[in-house]
Design goal:
This protein is α+β, with helices and mostly antiparallel strands. 49% of the residues lie in helices and 9% in strands. It contains 26 helices and 18 strands. It is globular, with a radius of gyration of 26 Å.
């Protein structure tokens, strides 16, 4: 019977995103369930389903055990299109709701708030079906152990599955018990990693081999990874930028530039309003799923800023400016933090807010010749370039437009800039996509880090001000009395303990803020958070970090996030943090743990060609091949010198200093009255100090 259920699995991998505003009031609703008291926009979207949804908590788990009912654990997020398709087809259907309510304990989970729960049941889904996606629908025993999981199901299949599990649980519970035991064992073993006691050897040959595996996967026509769908994967290109700086490999830089150029020209980038969608369904970067996620945009601000330092391409500066402006306009909370995402759908249609008809464009650009040029540049066609409508993306034949219309680049830019505000103003009259206005600590850490890199690259003080304000929000709202963090914030309330990625991203962002401000309070904050993670998250058997702390309630399995993905894995981020904090505070234990963590991972990194899932680990590998430069700047102009130094791409450098010697050991006895001196050091051994940034850069070549 379970085999028959597995055959029904319909995995939808090209899932888009949807969000809508929910009303917490019970008035004017025929049905209201236990989600009505939650703060998550995704959970509130389901608060008036006839399904008697429960949030994930101890009370719900106790209820399942007390009533001896299986749980249906349905996981999604506010910007998930297929989650809402299934809601409309099945969870709003009273017949299906009756089956679910009578025979199961239905549980709704926001995967962005509870990635720990999502990871357990997504792993189960991948073990059972070989694939995954959202919505994720798992059937579990009353104690939470999964017996089966799948993704999206049409109404008829979902009804059939519900009826089958109802019958099996009644007639053959032992079969489900056997499945639960085997799947739980599989989940627990999925993240198993042994401590590697072998020699720690970080050599250039192994590093180059792994990095070249990633370069070989580049689509040399359109950039990114070969095939579809195309995800930006910023950390992959961060690795290539570091590799290029270290080795001079031209292909690495060419792959970065090609990818960034093609993304910036494609439909994945909002040509009018700035900001990137989550991914493109095709190989051309043309047709995105139109949701915009904070984590993508924070990382891409970072990547475009750092690549600008190397290439000085003014287009990258424009992309950063527009993306920062998008985030401020669409996602910024009044208190300075950033919301999670924008929906893809409006008025029930994916992308409706963003697409155009030829007639609509012509009506807004009253000069026919200008309308023609504008449409040619953005590939707008009378029959549409995507599903009978038009996504704005930049033509590959811009030079032909100039020649054909007898205009130059400046005239083309003038036309585009004249009509962008007009089309934007018209677009703003449309029904807007929904905003998932919860604040997630980890995603804000990524955004802060991106803003700091933008400040380094372009010297814009407003970027630094935004970063500092968002960090102040975290310090004021998300730090508990014991020094731990909250993960979420919504409507003045923080309720969920932070996970490892929350700590990892904030530690990195705080360390980066120190490197531009030389304000030791940021570095001390990073050190305190690092201490907390090493006390409450570390597995002593292998020195890796669990995703949840020892203060959290136990799940079916305590997982570790080892691989890198669209966001770097929390273990690789923590390994890099430990190495950096170890350098700043001369903490040999932290540096040793970072090296041990990488050593644990190297066998599987070197054994696979899928190095795109280990790109952040490989960045640490690169840093360990040669000693890191420790650049100490001490004197009255220390901040200005640091600012000048930061305009260069520094691949394996930490910056420290201040107007006085501060508290860091490496700064001791380096202050010279009336002078601002720059000391370039490695392993705490410093070269003769210099006063000019250009000379300091020469010492690092």
């Amino acid at each position: 019977m379970l085999r028959y259920i597995a055959i029904l699995t319909l995995v939808v991998t090209f899932y888009s995103c949807k969000s809508s505003q929910s009303n917490n009031s019970q008035d004017d609703h025929e049905y209201t369930n236990n989600l009505v008291n939650e703060s998550s926009p995704y959970l509130l979207q389901h608060a008036h389903n006839p399904v008697d949804w429960h949030p994930w908590n101890e009370e719900t788990l106790a209820k399942a055990k007390a009533e001896d009912k299986m749980m249906i654990i349905s996981i999604g997020y506010a910007a998930c299109h297929w989650c809402h398709v299934m809601e409309h087809e099945s969870f709003e259907d009273t017949t299906i709701a009756r089956i679910m309510n009578e025979n199961f304990i239905p549980v709704k989970v926001d995967r962005e708030e509870r990635p720990d729960v999502d990871d357990v049941y997504m792993t189960a889904c991948q073990l059972i079906t070989g694939r995954g996606g959202w919505p994720l629908n798992a059937f579990a025993m009353p104690d939470g152990r999964p017996v089966w999981a799948g993704t999206y199901f049409p109404k008829d299949q979902w009804t059939d599955i519900l009826n089958q599990f109802t019958k099996i649980y009644k007639d053959d519970k032992a079969k489900l018990e056997d499945s639960a035991q085997k799947i739980t064992q599989g989940i627990a073993s999925r993240d198993a990693i042994q401590i590697n006691t072998g020699e720690q050897n970080y050599d250039l040959q192994a590093y180059s081999k792994s990095t070249n595996n990633l370069i070989d996967k580049i689509d040399w026509d359109k950039g990114g990874r070969k095939g579809a769908p195309k995800f930006p994967m910023p950390n992959n290109f961060d690795l290539l930028l570091k590799y290029h700086a270290m080795t001079g490999d031209k292909r690495a830089l060419e792959g970065i530039v090609l990818t960034l150029d093609e993304m910036a020209s494609g439909g994945i980038y909002d040509q009018l309003g700035g900001g990137f969608s989550r991914y493109s369904v095709d190989e051309e970067w043309l047709a995105p799923h139109f949701e915009k996620m904070l984590y993508d945009n924070g990382q891409l601000i970072n990547l475009y800023s750092n690549t600008y330092k190397v290439t000085k391409n003014p287009e990258y500066k424009r992309i950063v400016e527009e993306t920062v402006a998008f985030a401020e306009r669409e996602l910024l909370d009044d208190a300075g933090a950033y919301y999670s995402s924008l929906d893809a759908d409006s008025e029930g249609e994916e992308g409706k807010f963003y697409v155009w008809s030829q007639t609509e464009v012509d009506s807004l650009i009253t000069n026919p010749n200008h309308a023609k040029i504008f449409s040619e540049y953005y590939t707008i066609k009378s029959g549409g370039n995507w599903e009978n409508t038009n996504i704005l993306y930049v033509t590959d034949d811009a030079e032909k437009i100039l020649y054909k219309n007898k205009i130059n680049h400046a005239q083309l830019d003038e036309i585009l800039q004249r009509y962008h505000p007009i089309l934007m103003a018209h677009r703003d009259t449309r029904v807007r996509p929904g905003t998932d206005d919860k604040v997630l600590t980890s995603w804000n850490g990524l955004m802060i880090d991106g803003l700091v890199e933008a400040h380094k690259a372009f010297g814009d003080q407003s970027y630094l001000d935004k970063a500092k304000r968002a960090m102040k929000f975290i310090q004021d709202k998300q730090v508990k009395k014991d020094g731990s963090l909250y993960r979420n914030y919504k409507d003045g309330k923080s309720a969920i303990n932070a996970f490892l990625d929350d700590y990892a991203t904030v530690i990195k962002a705080a360390t980066n803020l120190y490197q531009v401000t030389l304000d030791e309070s940021y570095l001390e904050f990073a050190r305190q958070l690092t201490e907390y993670t090493t006390q409450h998250f570390v597995d002593p058997e292998n020195q890796m970090f669990h995703y949840t702390s020892n203060q959290d309630a136990d799940l079916v399995a305590r997982k570790k996030e080892l691989a890198d993905n669209v966001i770097p894995g929390s273990n690789s981020m923590m390994a890099r943090n430990l190495y950096a904090i170890g350098l700043y505070f001369d903490n040999k234990g932290y540096k040793a743990q970072a090296k041990q963590m990488l050593n644990n991972m190297l066998p599987q990194i070197e054994a696979t060609k899928s190095t795109d899932y280990y790109s952040n680990w490989l960045q640490l590998h690169g840093d360990l091949i040669n000693p890191t430069y420790e650049v100490a700047i001490v004197g009255p102009d220390a901040v200005a010198k640091a600012k000048e130094l930061n305009t260069s791409y520094l691949s394996n450098v930490i910056i420290l200093g201040g107007t006085d010697e501060g508290t860091l050991a490496l700064l001791k006895d380096k202050l010279q009255e009336g002078e601002t001196m720059i000391y370039v050091c490695q392993n705490k051994v410093c070269k003769f100090p210099v006063t000019e940034v250009s000379k300091a850069l020469e010492l690092m070549k």
